[in-house]
């Protein structure tokens, strides 16, 4: 019995040292001795907290601004061409609709004109249905149900059936387009759809676009414990997204959002460091290697991956993600305390220290690094 207790105590002290003492010592080391360039990382003075990754290419930003300006000027035809130019790249097509939704939030007269001129256009009808859902969520807010005024909740729930019906009508206009089904999947949880009602919507969406990123993100929200699922159901859904993510798609990032939901519910600072959890994070990282470097969703997902790896005690792989991230630190994991540069520096320094990576000092001439 004494031997057994000694073994248990020893294991406990080992875990305590690994989970708490080593990270605390690493934080002190980061503050006093960490030199980022010695580990292949940009220096602290180069860190940029304005964004999660590099800005969009100039031509892409100019195209978006031109479409927005034309719409606000009353020209809906530019918006229609912009969406149609995405063809059957359904993720890209949805991303363009999301941009137009932001444009319509400020002024939707051009959208009304588009719908009047082309009543049989699926994109225009889908955009209107999506805007209806978004406006309903603006009334409700992002708080938990008990935090929302009953009058606002009543208005929210009254608006969603009309938005879902609008999306159903849009689906009839172009049976191959998954956009209307994304709208319905998005609205389903707010409309209090039970799983038996939700499943047909999901089946219709995935029949048209089995790897639709936004569709999966919305379904993940439906299956989380705060809506109509559970932690177990949500994680099973997220792991399936990783396993089925096709080359070039950032779909595996859905797993990282699930970890965020899990952590928010538990309030725990650490994430599971089980063999399965580590394997899944490794698979996410491998999947990201096949995503186009200019995919604008990728930088923010890399930040989530680096943070998840760090919290799962995967220090070496986390350091590699920090190297790929570069100087950009304006992403969600680092912004919550209002000091993203400090949080980012502490995180990547901890990864460097605890990974066991050997520093390679930057050559210096007259005290100035090359």
Chart the SSEs and their pairings.
Layout: H1 2-33, H2 58-72, H3 77-84, H4 90-106, H5 109-117, H6 122-140, H7 150-173, H8 179-188, H9 195-208, H10 213-223, H11 231-244, H12 254-266, H13 275-288, H14 298-311, H15 315-325, H16 332-335, H17 340-355, E1 364-365, E2 368-369
Antiparallel strand pairs: 1-2
Helix pairs in contact: 1-17, 2-3, 2-4, 3-4, 4-6, 6-7, 6-8, 7-8, 8-9, 8-10, 10-11, 11-12, 13-14, 14-15, 15-17
**CATH-derived architecture of the domain at 58-211:** Alpha Horseshoe
Stretches where pLDDT falls below 50 for ≥5 residues?
Answer: 6-17, 364-370
Strand content: under 5%
Q: Could you give the count of β-strands?
A: 2
Can you give the mean pLDDT?
90
| CATH topology (fold) name of the domain at 58-211 | Serine Threonine Protein Phosphatase 5, Tetratricopeptide repeat
Strand order of the largest sheet: 1-2
* Cα gyration radius (Å): 24 Å
- Name the helicity range: 55-70%
Major beta sheet summary: 2 strands, antiparallel
N/C terminus separation = 61 Å
Q: How would you describe the shape?
A: globular
What would you note in describing this structure?
By secondary structure, the protein is mostly helical. It has a domain at 58-211: Serine Threonine Protein Phosphatase 5, Tetratricopeptide repeat, CATH 1.25.40. Helix content is 66%, strand content 1%. It is built from 17 helices and 2 strands. The chain has helices spanning 2-33, 58-72, 77-84, 90-106, 109-117, 122-140, 150-173, 179-188, 195-208, 213-223, 231-244, 254-266, 275-288, 298-311, 315-325, 332-335, 340-355, and strands at residues 364-365, 368-369. It has a two-stranded antiparallel sheet. Strand 1 (364-365) and strand 2 form a beta hairpin.
């Amino acid at each position: 019995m004494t031997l057994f207790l000694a073994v248990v105590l020893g294991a406990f002290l080992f875990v305590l040292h690994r989970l708490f003492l080593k990270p605390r010592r690493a934080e002190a080391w980061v503050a006093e001795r960490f030199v980022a360039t010695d580990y292949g990382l940009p220096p602290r003075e180069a860190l940029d907290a304005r964004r999660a990754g590099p800005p969009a290419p100039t031509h892409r930003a100019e195209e978006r601004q031109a479409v927005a300006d034309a719409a606000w000027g009353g020209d809906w035809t530019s918006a229609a061409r912009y969406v149609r130019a995405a063809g059957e790249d359904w993720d890209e097509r949805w991303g363009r609709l999301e941009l137009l939704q932001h444009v319509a939030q400020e002024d939707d007269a051009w959208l009304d004109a588009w719908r009047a001129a082309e009543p049989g256009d699926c994109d225009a009808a889908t955009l209107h249905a999506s805007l209806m859902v978004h406006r309903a969520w603006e009334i409700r807010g992002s708080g938990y149900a008990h935090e929302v005024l009953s009058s606002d909740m009543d208005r929210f729930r009254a608006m969603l059936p009309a938005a879902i019906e609008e999306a159903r009508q849009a689906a009839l206009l172009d049976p191959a387009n998954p956009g209307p089904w994304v709208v319905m999947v998005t609205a389903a949880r707010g409309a209090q759809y039970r799983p038996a009602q939700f499943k047909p919507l999901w089946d219709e969406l995935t029949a048209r676009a089995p790897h639709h990123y936004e569709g999966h993100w919305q379904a993940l929200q439906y299956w989380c414990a705060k809506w109509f699922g559970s932690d177990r159901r949500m994680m099973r859904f997220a792991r399936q997204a990783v396993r089925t993510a096709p080359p070039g798609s950032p779909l595996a990032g859905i797993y990282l959002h699930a970890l965020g939901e899990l952590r928010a519910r538990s309030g725990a600072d650490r994430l599971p460091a089980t063999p399965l959890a580590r394997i899944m994070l490794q698979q996410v990282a491998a999947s990201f290697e096949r995503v186009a470097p200019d995919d604008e969703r990728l930088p923010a997902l890399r930040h989530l991956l680096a943070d998840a790896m760090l919290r799962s005690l995967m220090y070496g792989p986390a350091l590699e993600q920090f190297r790929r991230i570069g100087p950009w630190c304006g992403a969600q994991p680092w912004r919550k305390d209002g000091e993203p540069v400090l949080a980012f520096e502490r995180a990547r320094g901890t990864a460097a220290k605890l990974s066991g990576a050997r520093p390679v000092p930057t050559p210096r001439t007259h005290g100035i690094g090359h």
